[in-house]
Each structure stands twice: as structure tokens, then as C-alpha cells.
Amino acid sequence: MSPRKRNNTCKEQEHMRDSLFWTGIIIDSTRSVIHQRPSVILPNREADACVWDLIRQRTVVFEQSFRSLRDSPLPLPADVTVVLLQHAVACKTMNLGMLAQYFGALFQANAGAIEDAAARVLAESRRFHDIFDKFLAMCSRDYFSMSADSRLNYVLLIAHYHLGALVLADTLDHFDVVPEPLKDPSLSRLYACNAIVNALNLALNHDRYSGDDSLLGSTLLRDPTPVVMAEVLSRTGRSIFILLESGQIARHTAQFMITVVAATLSVVSQVSATAKHVLESVRELCARNQLELREDSPTQPRASLSAEHVELLSMCDGAFVDDFLHEMQIQASADGSLDRTIARYETAPNSAAARPVESCRVDALLNEPPGDLWHTNQVFLGR
Question: What range defines the domain where residue 273 resides?
């Protein structure tokens, strides 16, 4: 073998070793957090010098290189999106590694180590949010124009990152005293559930309306580790009910969020028996808490309007607004007539006989009893 060929072979083998090592770290960090145990591959602080310091350095380089794009109204170029998600996944893995260290300190019941590990968890969480939040918001904004691989990687990044916060919250429920750094809102159940549900909803809507003719037909079915997604959905579902019981979210919010979780489970259960069991548990929890789980077709209307409501709503259509503005233009062109019109409406008695038919119809609309139609019109009319 020639020296050049030998050198290329050595480089290829080194790259393969690094790739296998990094893949092992990703899997180990995730499983360590799920099972709340110390890392197997990186069991102690030696990981900082071995792996995490390099990720911190690369994260700084990324931030300096792409800082100018953070507030861009334009979609990120495809190659920049790939680089962004690669760096964000590395930083996410480091966050999970910090959580694994914290769980290791809990396992050893070392008070000093627990406080130190909690501080590192918060520090790396802030690093992630400070550097990547604006970029990830752009990915959410431009989700439907990203490539299939980037869409999948974005959803998995959000789901796996916030899984750490959900596991942490479930763990801290068993302790009377919570370290101060772990009370940060970015580590809360509410923050994690909102982020996960929003990302999953993007994926579901893309699957629903894209007309994708690929073999799998769903972004979520391309997940290489559906068992991890099943864990994400299981903890998200339980957390939604905890948030509902504690009054942190309204009932209608919980219903929407749990419906998104159930819809995702319906997809993932095609390739994961665990997801199928989780879906049954979610349905049981909904029934127990008297929370309606809407699993109907999104293309079918939930209800039809009565003729009376259609007539009332028609008063607010574009033609009515155009006629009103035209009338105001005529009134404004006449000396003082607009002021007299306003004064007449301000001083007129509140009775149907003294007011135009259109005004009475709008009043009737506004006086509808509370309900979906009533709330819709309040928003439309700016009340």
C-alpha cells in the first residue's frame, strides 16, 4: 500500500471511529436522562475535557459566524440550516449530558456535587437558548420550505431537547427542596410542553396538507428512534394533565395540546408498539379527566351554521365594510354632516325603533349568548 493510500485509509478509519463514538454519546446521553442514571460512556467530569469543551468552542465559532443572520426576515439558506441543526444537536446532547451528571450526583447523594451539577445544567441551558432560540424560531417560521431532512431534524431536536426538562420536572416532584438554578422557567414543564406541541403540530400539518407521495408519507415515520419519541409523547401527555390540574393551562388549551400528542402517537404507533400503549394510556387519562380527545378528520367541519347566523355574519362581510366606508367618504365630503351623524348616534336612545336595521342586527350579533360563534365575532369585531 502506498503512503498516500495508507494515509487516506487512516483518516477514514479515524473519521469512522469518531462518528461511532459520537453516535454512542448521543444514544447514551438520551438513555441516561430517560432512566435518570449516570452516563455509561462519559461517567464523570472527564467528559468536559474530552467532549463538551470542544462543543462549547464550536458553538462559539458558529455564533460568531452566523450572528448577522439571526434577525433576517429571509429564510435561512439550506446549507446554513443544516449547519445550524448540526450545532444545535451537539449543544442539545451536551445539555442532556449535564442532566445525566446531575442525576449521577443525585444517585450518589452528594450535596456539593448536586449544587454544582444543577448550576451546570442551567448554564448550558442558557447557552443553548441564547445562541439558538432565534435561529430555531426562524426554522419554525420557515418550516414548510425546509428540506425533508431538515424538517425531521428540527422536530427531533425540539422534542429530544425538551424531553430533558420533562424528565427533570418529574424527578424534582419527589424532592421537597429544589436547587435554585433548576427553578428557571426554561426548565419548566410549561415551557417544554409548549415547545414540543408546537413542533409536533408543524409536522402534523405538513403531513396533512403537503400531498407527499413518498413511501412513508409522514415526517414522523422517518424517526430512527421512535421509542425515544414515544417517551417524549408519554411524558408530554402526563405533563399536560399536571399543568391542567395545577391551573397553569386552561382546559381548552389542554384539550388542544393532548389532541396533538394523540395524533402524533397515532402516527408513531405504526412503527412502535410502545407508542401504541402510550396512546391507550392517553385515551384513558382523557376519559378519567373528562377531557374530550378530538380524533376526527381535520378536513371535515365540526358543525354547520344555522341560516340565522349566516345572515348575521353576512353583515360583516367585505361588501358591508366597503359600503360603510363609501358612506363615510360621502358624509366627510359634506360640511358638518359627519359630525352631526356621530352626534346623532351618540345621543339616540338605545332602542330598535331609533336605530338603523343594520345597527340592530349587529347588536343582535353582539348579544348572542356565549359560545364559539360569539367568541369568533368578538375577535372579528375587535371587542
Answer: 188-296
